[in-house]
Amino acid sequence: MAKPIQLLAKSSKLLQSLADRGPLPISELAEELDMPRPSVYRLTDALRLVGLVSETEDGRSQLGLEVLHLARAVLDALPEAQAARDELRRLNRVTGQTVYLCAPREGGVACLDWVRGTRVSLLALSPGGVLPVNAGATSRAILAYSPGLRERLSGMRLVELTPKTLTSPEDLERDGMEIRERGYSVSNEDVTLGVSALGVPVFGPSNGLSCAISLAGLSEDILGNEAEYAAELLTSAGRIQEALKAAQ
Length: 248
Description:
Elements: H1 2-21, H2 26-33, H3 37-49, E1 53-55, E2 61-63, H4 66-77, H5 79-95, E3 98-105, E4 108-115, E5 130-131, H6 137-144, H7 147-151, H8 169-182, E6 185-188, E7 195-203, E8 209-218, H9 219-224, H10 226-247
Antiparallel strand pairs: 1-2, 3-4, 3-8, 4-5, 6-7, 7-8
C-alpha cells in the first residue's frame, strides 16, 4: 500500500505547486517533488489523461480544466459557500476589495471561496489555502468566537508571518475581547506587509460559529474606510446567517 499512497501524495503536491506558482517546467517540478525528471514526466502524463494537468504552448505544466469542475463541485456541496455567494459578489462590487469566505478546518482556517479585488493582487490566501488561527481577519474573528479553540492556544504552535503577527495566547485573548466588543476583527499587516483586512464571524442555524467573511486590500484603503467596510461586512454576515437558516 505504500507506493499508491506515496503516488497520491506526490500527485497532490504537484497539483498544489501548480496552484500556488502557476505553470512550471518539468525541471522545477522535479525539484519541488524531489523526483527524477522521467518520473515527473510519467506523473504529469497520467494527470493529463484525467484532465487534472494540461500543457502550455511552451511545454510547461499547468492545472487542467477538470480542476475547475472539481472545485465547483466542492463549493456546491458546502452550505456556507452557497449561502455566501451573492454577498461575496455584492461586497466586492461595493468596495472593490478582495472578499473572502473562510471556515475553521483541522490545523487552521481554510479559504472556501473568494472574489478578487481590483486594487491589490499580492494576497497570501486563495481558495483551498489555510492560514494559522492567529493570523488574518477571518482567522482571528473565528478564534475570538471559539472558546474551545482559545483554550487550546497555549498548546498550539503560533506562527509569526510578519513582525505584526500576534503570537502569544495573552495577546490573542486580549484581541478576542476587542473583537467581540466591536463585532469585527482588524488584521493590520499581520499576514502580508502592506495588506490589511476586516473580518466578521457568521453563525449557523443553531447559533454556533459557522464561518467568517472578510475584506482585504492595501492597508490605507482598508483602514481608511474601516467604519464603512465593517458596516457592509456586518450586513452581509447577517444575510448569510439568514440564508443558512433558510437552507436548514
